[in-house]
Write a structure and sequence with these properties.
about 35% helix; Udp-n-acetylmuramoylalanyl-d-glutamate--2,6- Diaminopimelate Ligase, Chain: A, domain 1; alpha/beta
């Protein structure tokens, strides 16, 4: 098997045409004609991840986040992205990133998040048609197996998602009952209005900023709508994708390739003082 074959399988699972217009997922670096016997997975292509992938002898590193989010002209080894790229190139390891296309795809980050939280019958918040026989699109909305308080849901989210110092924060009445849940893996405050329109009792996402969150809570008060927010770390909301990804890639590629998850916590925060 070549790197080309592994990349083609990933692009069938997570089609690039599902990406947002500003996003550039795909093969970041590497030789498509190289033999591919080992594939490792990580959320972020950090320096430590690149070192570990090379040390393990990976032929392909699959990450959720891209190496670069903006256009660059220089990638010296004095730059962290350049250094990570240097380690991968020296090890002969290709890098393939799947970002917003994985968020939107069936069995991508949002469906994996729903599975961790026990959200059933989940459908996209922003539908983009059918892909591989299942609904695609950003976000998901569905129902919990049972009704619970907003506080209980936030605590359950903290327990079921990967641990970070942030844990889970909530906005709204802790005692209000929730059953219909909207989620958006990664930064989700641009989807406040669409989450509101789903009729969800609570919206769980990441990276909520002061002004958008405050404005949304004020909108709820003005309209008389009871709805909660739960804010978890970016890392916690996206890492569950690997629950699906390794299994699905193995089914596609078979026993000819060895897979490994680099279980590295790349959440940047290391301590919280409250």
């Amino acid at each position: 098997m070549k790197v080309r074959d592994a990349v083609a399988a990933l692009e069938e699972m997570y089609p690039l045409d599902l990406k947002e217009d500003w996003d550039y997922p795909g093969l970041v670096l590497g030789n498509l004609e190289r033999e591919c016997k080992k594939i490792c997975f990580a959320l972020d292509p950090t320096i430590d991840v690149a070192k570990e992938a090379g040390k393990w002898g990976a032929d392909l590193l699959v990450t959720h986040h891209p190496l670069f989010f903006r256009a660059v002209h220089l990638i010296p080894s004095t730059d962290p992205h350049g250094l990570a790229a240097s380690f991968l190139l020296q090890a002969g390891c290709a890098l393939r990133a799947g970002h917003t296309n994985v968020d939107a795809a069936p069995r991508g980050t949002n469906e994996a998040l729903c599975a961790r939280l026990g959200i059933l019958k989940a459908l996209p918040i922003d539908p983009e048609g059918i892909v591989n026989g299942a609904p695609a699109g950003l976000g998901r909305v569905g129902e919990l197996e049972r009704e619970m308080s907003l506080e209980e849901f936030a605590k359950m989210s903290r327990e079921r998602l990967p641990k970070t110092v942030q844990g889970a924060r909530l906005a709204g009445d802790p005692k209000m009952k929730v059953k219909r849940v909207a989620v958006m893996s990664g930064a989700g405050d641009s989807f406040f209005d669409k989450a509101f329109q789903t009729g969800a009792d609570v919206y769980l996402t990441s990276d909520l900023r002061h002004h958008p969150a405050l404005d949304f809570m004020q909108k709820l008060e003005a309209t008389g709508r009871k709805m909660g927010l739960v804010d978890v770390s970016h890392f916690s909301s996206e890492f569950p994708w690997f629950d699906f990804a390794l299994k699905d890639v193995k089914e596609r590629l078979g026993e000819t390739v060895e897979l490994r998850l680099l279980d590295v916590n790349t959440d940047p925060w290391t301590e919280a003082f409250i």
